[in-house]
User: Fold these one by one.
Assistant:
Number 1:
Amino acid sequence: MDDEKYAASFDIIMKAGDAKSNAMMAVEEAKNRNFEEARRLLDEARQEMIDSHVSQTELIQAEANGNPVEMNIILVHAQDHFSMATTAIDFAEHFIDLYEEMSQIEETVNQYKTMVKIVV
């Protein structure tokens, strides 16, 4: 594999790794009820995945244009990072939604508790 294709593989690793990290930080922010920051981090993760996908697409196009991409451990590692980051982002979105919904339910319960104390 030539240097350009190695660079594309390492670019995928770097950007997908950053995307996964941001997705995991987004979940942590949601857990701490910082939903605005969680959504910002999730948006950043999605943008990094778009950037990572550009590098992946370059390799796919090279293969489609008759320039075979040699399979090696770096490329396998890059694809693994890409797949894991995609999954992390998907799950992060669901976790953020769940934490937000849970927070809203807790607020409603607390409001009812306050109302009951006032009435009693």
Note: The chain has one domain: 3-119.
Number 2:
Amino acid sequence: MTTYTQKIREISKRLLQEGRVDMVIGFARGSVPMINQPAFATHSADADRFVWDGNCGINLANYVTGRQETIGIVAKGCDARNLAVHIVENKIRRDQLYIIGVPCMGMTDRHKLTAAVAGEIESVDEDESGKTVTVSGDGFSETFNRAEMLQENCMLCMHRNPVLFDEMIADPVPEQTDEDIDRYGAVRRVENMNPEEKWDYFDDLLSDCIRCYACRNACPLCYCPTCFVDESKPQWVGKSIDPADIRIFHFLRAYHCAGRCTDCGACVRSCPMGINVRALTKKLEKDCLEYFGWEAGLTTEQRPPLDTYKPDDPEQFIK
């Protein structure tokens, strides 16, 4: 994605040279393949570090919370939606942000790529069209259909283009619709299970959790000054890896994100144990859409449905 990279650098340099922003937040090459890292440019020369490809999966909205500076930020669809949530929740002001919008065709899944080859991956290259991805290492080089190697949340994304931006680096890409994908198929499969099957499903889902909190720390919505799992007076949940404590942590964190989660995949991407935490948040996303007609981060003019009260709120979910 050489064109995207060049455009991001040009816009970032212009903003810094003109004094429009105090810094620009984007991506730079990481220290290991398939993981680009957040980068901060405060001088125009710093912008030469910026890159863009399918390894920019980290949600940069994480890095604007509570800042006082004027910030330029590179934002794909889910990042921009999270910025909208931040604005609504008064974590950053809209006039502090200059959003550099990036049309996104999805982020590659490093776990899929790693599993698809026999050796250790040393480099990853995407063709300019974005249709293939080539991974190389000691004694091998293999090319894959990039669409098959995307993160699951990207495969199901219906907001590839930023809904909030000040400048776009390219023309919008085609959006997917409900006719193209079944974004809640996995949720319905769990909904159709009997109680015993559901218990076994979630027991297996969370069985490998080591309570490292990587999912929480990577989540752009988890900016409470003190998380409920860290409270000691009162202590809301145990600190152990007892299955009950693990379930309470994941279920309560998911509910805290209800109506706010943009399905950016940061939780799954960061989990060292490969747990599909999205199984919880995707269900709540589906409920918010069906009960309230609500999708997170599409507006800065309205608060999430579980953050407000209306006398005519639907009550079908109350058992």
Note: The radius of gyration is 20 Å.
Number 3:
Amino acid sequence: MSITAERLASLIQRELVNIVNQEVKDKSFGYINLTEVKVTKDLSFATIYYTILNDDEDVLTRAHKAIEDAKALIRMELAKKIKKTRRIPELIFKYDEALAYGNHIDKILKTIK
């Protein structure tokens, strides 16, 4: 039985929400929101887009480092949860700048008023 990339992406996102926030120990930047997961057609790579509420550059750097440090543990925990695929894709975490860009546009619109 084969699993599609879209189905695996939604399964990964559902399971990773809890795993990421349990494995990333630095709570100075708060909760990590996973906005989207994209899986390649050959199911070998999964790009996980995340955001945090604080858009300070130092906090973003610390959050990215904490996620990268815990990536192996996150992948192992994900493998325990997902049994529908033989191989868990390689995880690539990227900061989703859409929320920060939206907040920037909102600030500009408020100053125009």
Note: The chain has one domain: 5-112.
Number 4:
Amino acid sequence: MIIGDAAGPVDRAKQLVNVATNAGRHLQSAQTGLVHYCYRSVDSENQDTIPVVENFLFALALLRERTSETVTEGKRILDRLMYFQNFYDEASQGNFPVYIHEFPHCHDHYLGAQLLPIFYWTLRHFGLLLGADLRERMHTSASALYNYCHHRLEEGSPSFLPSVQIAAASKALGELWENPQVEKEGDVRLAELCALSREDSFDAWMNASVLGETLVALQTVYTNLEQSPWKHLWLAACRHWHSKTATFVGPPVFERQRGLQPDPNVLDLLLGFHAGGFSYRSFLHSPYLLKAALIHPSDDSFLTQTTPSEDEGSYSAGRWTVLQTPDYAVTAAEGAIQRDKFGCGLRVVWGDHNYAHSLVCQGGNIDDLTYKAVPGGIDLIVTLPEEVPTEARQKNRELMFFLDKYDGVSISISGHATATAFEFGEPVEIESAGMRINFMCALEEGDGKFFGHIAPGNRPSQLENSGDSRFESYDWQLFLRTVERHGKCKIRVALRFTYLETDGESS
């Protein structure tokens, strides 16, 4: 792992290529020579399915290694994959199956959105190395795939990310093929999508994974996003990147956790590349690392956020605020907690490149959540609904906080480290990796009795609690249980943050 300024852009680019290749090797079958992986696998030891996208990414990574052995292997994989493009069914003509055993059936209408950028980079940088026959087959394949994606765009309404991927690939391939019509189609779509991304209600950029893959797709067209019409997305990514933890800390509308840390994604790799260092978690084995093959050096410069800072804005569900200090970041969003299991009303992140710790307010039985930034912290004002939950297990857990359950965390109630229950007005203190969080609840409006508890559990956005890990708990829950209440009421949760001096990095 490279942290800080230990290496220049060229070395970091090589590192990303190596990471992608190693990810492919980890999933490669000795029998078939292809990447085996199943998106919905529960227990992942034996995986027989062969996904098309990951194998195209693996082939691109092998080509980018630029050794005679890896180039030969990459070409061999590409040659085999070409035979699984659908030229038989008129409705799917040009598309690929999700897994090769499903051929000729193509269940994902927008799979081509992920494949077109791979075709572009392969044809642009390795056209001569492919040889005349394979180059012509790839050109024909890319053309058929583009035509299919173009028709899907005309007939359907894909989400923002595949639309951008197809539009950017259209412009890039149009330039590469010297085809003005294809290039113009890409230009028109990109302009429409760029205008959409500037609207106040646009919130796709708050999803770190979507933002990262959008920026990677746009880099097929723009060598400098900072000087492009999409500058606002590049600046949003830089502005909400917490340098000490190497973590995106934008509005907490799409929080995802994998095990004890935030779920790594392409944005971690992209901004790690431009900011000068990667987090440890971003290189932990995961099939997403194959997408590192799509990240290329560019003229973009990372714009370091000066801290302390406060940024705020609005989106379709309400307002959001991002508070950053050199050591931690606090983000809050109204309406996010009602969105789905990935939405948070509050997210606090601290730690370093080795370990990003987090506390989130997520799940529960909340009708509305607002917040107020105060010196040294934030107050949450939570409205509980008219309907009172039953006494059934977990149904009456109306307000829930989750703290990653690493070995060094300590939680005390009124100074007692062994206590596991608290009442309104009792101070709860959390210490974790140099961060101290003081937590206290009070009844703001209405009538009710509540009791607080501390217990192991998993936040709703936990992705690791399945398969062999389905019985693991990765968090401490701090939740309020309703004993009795009558109708709506409001609860104020006061959180205050203090960063303590530590002798070294997080464990």
Note: The first helix runs from residue 9 to 27.
